[in-house]
């Protein structure tokens, strides 16, 4: 499954198989698959995720700043737009239907697990280059792609069908491939074709694994409203 999103993603994923399994097969995810996830846990997660997306939009905007080519800028700016125009809009829509206004959403108190993840990603970008930033951003993009695709095939309930359909969609899968291509091209441009042999590689893999562990913490937070 992890082979679909590019060469670098597959290599980074293979350096963190346990964390990746804990992330993509978390009890929260399995609860969306079979419909047993309590609705209040899901809405609590969505409210936190709305705040999360604000900071992720900032991180992807930082990727525009750290870009060195027009192709890099295009992918980064496309992701900023997808985040703000589509993903945040999806959260606003689901929450509004559940009686949570946009004002309520903005007033959400950020949980420490949420804060830790978004600020870790932003810090990777502030103090590093585009590679450090992309290594921190990749688990979020590819993990949801993998979860969406698997759940679309395995789900036994329609309770969370809208959420699953969003991340299983051809459009979202295309966005994952675009980010995978960006990661491969950015690495090759800066470190060469044999980028996994670079002295920077271990540190990039560590950043990828830490972000994956922070995704596990985010799901865990979702289970405790
Ligand atoms: C905790 C958490 N992790 C990942 C995503 C998914 N996501 C966040 S930004 C982005 C890239 C642009 O679409 C994607 C896919 C989420 N919503 N919440």
Could you walk me through the main structural features you see in this protein, from its secondary elements to its overall organization?
It contains 11 helices and no strands. With 225 residues, the protein is mainly alpha-helical. The longest helix has 28 residues, at 70-97. It is globular, with a radius of gyration of 17 Å. The protein has a single domain, classed as Heme Oxygenase, Chain A (Up-down Bundle). Helices cover 79% and strands 0% of the residues. The protein binds the ligand Cc1ncc(C[n+]2csc(CCO)c2C)c(N)n1. Residues 49, 52-53, 56, 79, 82-83, 87, 140-141, 144, 175, 215, 218 line the site of the ligand Cc1ncc(C[n+]2csc(CCO)c2C)c(N)n1.
Supply the CATH architecture.
Answer: Up-down Bundle
Fraction in helix: over 70%
Identify the quaternary structure here. single chain
Count of helix runs: 11
Tell me the structural class: mainly alpha
**Which shape, going by the Cα principal axes?**
globular
Which cofactor or ligand species appear?
A: the ligand Cc1ncc(C[n+]2csc(CCO)c2C)c(N)n1
Strand content: under 5%
Q: Which CATH class is shown?
A: Mainly Alpha
The CATH homology group name: Heme oxygenase-like
GO cellular component, one term: cytosol
Function: Catalyzes an amino-pyrimidine hydrolysis reaction at the C5' of the pyrimidine moiety of thiamine compounds, a reaction that is part of a thiamine salvage pathway.
Catalytic activity: thiamine + H2O = 5-(2-hydroxyethyl)-4-methylthiazole + 4-amino-5-hydroxymethyl-2-methylpyrimidine + H(+); 4-amino-5-aminomethyl-2-methylpyrimidine + H2O = 4-amino-5-hydroxymethyl-2-methylpyrimidine + NH4(+)
Pfam family, one: TENA_THI-4
């Amino acid at each position: 499954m992890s082979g679909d999103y590019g060469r670098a993603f597959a290599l980074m994923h293979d350096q963190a198989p346990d964390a990746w399994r804990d992330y993509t097969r978390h009890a929260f995810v399995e609860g969306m698959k079979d419909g047993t996830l309590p609705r209040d846990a899901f809405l609590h997660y969505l409210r936190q995720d709305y705040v999360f997306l604000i900071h992720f939009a900032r991180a992807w905007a930082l990727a525009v700043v750290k870009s060195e080519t027009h192709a890099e800028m295009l992918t980064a700016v496309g992701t900023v737009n997808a985040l703000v125009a589509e993903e945040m809009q999806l959260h606003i829509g689901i929450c509004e239907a559940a009686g949570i206004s946009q004002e309520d959403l903005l007033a959400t108190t950020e949980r420490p697990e949420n804060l830790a993840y978004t600020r870790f990603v932003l810090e990777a970008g502030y103090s590093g280059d585009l590679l450090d930033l992309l290594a921190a951003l990749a688990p979020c993009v590819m993990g949801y792609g993998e979860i969406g695709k698997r759940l679309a095939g395995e789900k036994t309930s329609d309770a969370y069908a809208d959420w699953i359909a969003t991340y299983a969609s051809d459009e979202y899968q295309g966005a994952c491939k675009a980010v995978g291509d960006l990661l491969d091209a950015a690495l090759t441009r800066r470190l060469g074709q044999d980028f996994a042999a670079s002295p920077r590689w271990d540190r990039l893999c560590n950043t990828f694994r830490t972000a994956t562990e922070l995704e596990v913490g985010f799901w865990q937070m979702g289970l405790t409203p």
